[in-house]
Design goal:
Blueprint: H1 3-37, H2 41-50, H3 52-69, H4 75-84, H5 87-112, H6 117-131, H7 138-148, H8 154-163, H9 168-178, H10 180-198, H11 203-229, H12 240-253, E1 257-262, E2 273-277, H13 284-291, E3 300-304, H14 311-319, E4 323-325, H15 333-343, E5 348-350, H16 370-376, E6 379-386, H17 388-391, E7 402-412, H18 414-418, H19 422-433, E8 470-473, E9 476-479, E10 485-487, H20 501-513, E11 520-530, E12 537-547, E13 550-555, E14 559-562, E15 572-573, E16 577-582, E17 585-591, H21 598-616
Helix pairs in contact: 1-2, 1-3, 1-4, 3-5, 3-8, 4-5, 4-10, 5-8, 5-9, 5-10, 6-8, 7-8, 7-9, 10-11
Amino acid sequence: MKKSTQRIIILVSVIAAVALFALFLSDILIPFIRLEINNDVEGAKELLVDKGVLGFLSVVLVEALQMVVVFIPAEFIQISSGLSYPFYIALLLCDLGACLGATIIYVLVTTFRFSSEAYEKNERKIEKLAARVKKDRGTQLLLYLLFIMPLIPFGAICYYGSYSKMKYRRYIFTVATGVIPSIVTSNLMGMAARYFISNDLPLWLLILIIIGLAAILLVILFLFLNKVFLKQNAGTPDSVYLTGFFSLLHRFCRPKCRLHVDDAKLRDLPAPFIALCNHESFFDMYYTNRLFQNAKATPSYVVNKHYIASPLVRKIAAKGGVIPKKLFTPDLSVPVQIMRMLKKGYPVIIFPEARLSVDGRNNPIIDRSAAFYRRLKTDLVLVKIRGSYFAKPKWRKTFFRSDIFVSAERVITKDEIAAMTDDELNRLIDESFAFDESVDPVNTYRQKNKAKGLSNILYRCVDCGALYTTQGAGNELTCSACGKVHRLNEQYLFEDEPFSIGAYYAKIKDLEKAELNELRLEADVDTVIFRDTGRYRTREKGHCTLTNEGFSYRSESVRFTLGFDALPALPFSVNEEFETYYNGDQYYFYPTENRRQVVRWALIVDLVKELRDETES
């Protein structure tokens, strides 16, 4: 069948589905809700009796057409039917609609070789999931797995089943039974909404019921997948643990961004390999996960050990093939775990900067790992993310909806790596990671609160040099000491010098460099200690000092000093804390006064380290 004909069929199906749902909404659902609100039970029953066949037919056809179209969510009509009809009727209507839609797809595929573009976008994802299931389980059990996993639209699964050349009888039986768990859940949500309306239940109870139903479904789904289908994938990125995590993350992140993926260099690249990615925002794991949707293998991640430090989370992460890493401290177990994951055939994603960008520019790569990459004798993929810094920088709490671009920029083959020196490979990685989000911005921001939180990193006025006098409000950064105002435009650039956030931060660096000879910072802190052994978390009060000799901490229980050789960086959370490791334990320091100062501590450690490296070279 010609592509133009296929598109016409899809377009007509979309129009029909929308029109039928609108008819159901206006003629049945809205009048039914009004009668329920007025507690007119008899009137509501009469309405459903009067609209009987028309209402039934609308539910069945909308359910069927959304499967043919693929990209229209089935939940709309399933929840609506659960709200309008008794449970057994709603379930039967939705299941009949699913079977009708599956039959239409089967005829289109087997007779006319029809192929929906929406299905083609999901095809690689289905094939990837199929590869994770034991080969001897067969197509029918694979379809059941796909139906109960909340990852693939029903229509796309039916297209896949039709192309598999299953006999129609087995195919339609699989569809009829496989869609039931999802339909039941949606119908029950509709029923909960009906009882909320008719019985004047409190809103919190309705929300609790819906959350409870979703939680029960997820638990049952998890146990079934983990014990029956994917047990052999425990400890790898193909585990249901990691799949479930990214599925939930996708539901959270998808509405917040317009993600553009360029995976051309990944699609046919054989695993295993190492992928290196720049680190602009906290959601970079999600963006790279979407990049790998059509790759041949699911990647493992090297992540900050603190995020998975609690015993329960650590156990779940281990089952999901996650590799924990202590930031800026030697951790010999990490290379071993990376090599094991590669040996199993999985790619490994590493964020070499190990810190989020502060000012929209890349952080220096402190742990130089070219020699390690060369010993691995695998390909190296350089991944670039653009647009995520201004969408959600570390200094702003709100997420601005943005276009975000993630691409596999270059593949360095193992033969090319073998021909390079360590310095050449390190230099190539540095060059690929160099970026400044203020140069050639990819988004326009019309928000009226772009400067909110900005003073937490631009803590010093570059016009008069005063400390902690800047205030970010609206779209303006104002100094209370000299009165200078810097206003942000729609490209997140200042209208006058220093023109960009990165350039402003660079000027602060220059001011701090000029005062390094007299360096001495001190702060009383509330300390939270995450321990490797014994009690997981303890708290105490202490005092931190930073001089040209290094970083010191003292409390009633411990005293230690770290020279700059043992303190390559001081990670921090904006306006909250800075952190480091000592004797395997991670210390979080929360200043008791003026928490804006944490960025200054981190910046000065970077500057001292930078100057020492320049002197040594």
